[in-house]
Amino acid sequence: MTSTTGPRGWALAEHRRETLVERAAAGAVLVLPVGAIEQHGPHLPVWTDALIATHVAERAAAALDGTPDVLVAPTFSFGSSDHHLPFGGTLSMRTRTLMDALTDLGRSAVDSGFRRLYLLNGHGGNDEIVQLVARDLALQLPVHAGCSSWWKLVEKQVRGSGLAAAASRIPGHAGAFESAVMQTLRPDLVGDFPAEQPEPESKRQLSRLEMHQAWIRADGYTDSPGSLSAADGAAILRIAVDAVATEIRRFCALADQNSLPTEETRTRD
């Protein structure tokens, strides 16, 4: 049976071009979730990162309820995941290819009239890449661009909370943190947790240190996947949705204070 409820206000893909052109011209911010399709240990589905980023972006946009105006694009579900290729179940893009693809999407958004773009990332391997894309878009085009990996916006609050997740590695990979969130979002897709449950370890280092084949030795997941519950995951998601909504609101307030050059000014310059 066909729904007659019409497009959801925040869902870019459900609107017609006239509506999108009008909202872009009026200052709507376009949020692009970015994820990955990659192995997540023996217990989580390969679309974990894309699924979480999508959920957080859409719920944050719904919570903002038009103030500011937010449109969420369909998730860019493929990321930089070459380090997971040895396990199988992974579809990866080269770093340069991913940068080019995201930059092209940003350029097309600007050509379509958007002047505010926010990349919400869900995959650790994309973190530096989305930062570079946002930086270069704002340098090269008349657009205010922002980005973050969703877990960076929640870490301080989770660490300071009474949640069991406060002691977890954030975000880890298919460990306690992500496994708890997936138990909330799609428990039907979560398999049995592996018997090997390594303890959380800090990734805070003075240098970035990458050990050859480290992911193979760790069997493709970090810390202890079964140590947090679905209730912990639900609490993490509530914090995430609120934090992302707050950050988008802050981004738009800052954009309001920084005017962009007009077409006439750019032509004259």
From TrEMBL:
It comes from the Bacteria. Its cofactor is Zn(2+). InterPro entries: Creatininase-like_sf (IPR024087), Creatininase/forma_Hydrolase (IPR003785). It is an enzyme of class 3 (hydrolase). Its EC number is 3.5.2.10. SUPFAM superfamilies: Creatininase. The keyword Oxidoreductase does not apply. One of its GO terms (biological process) is riboflavin biosynthetic process. The keyword Metal-binding applies. Keywords: Hydrolase, Metal-binding, Zinc. GO terms for molecular function: creatininase activity; hydrolase activity, acting on carbon-nitrogen (but not peptide) bonds, in linear amides; metal ion binding. Gene3D superfamilies: Creatininase. Belongs to the creatininase superfamily. PANTHER family: 2-AMINO-5-FORMYLAMINO-6-RIBOSYLAMINOPYRIMIDIN-4(3H)-ONE 5'-MONOPHOSPHATE DEFORMYLASE, 3-DEHYDRO-SCYLLO-INOSOSE HYDROLASE. This is Creatinine amidohydrolase.
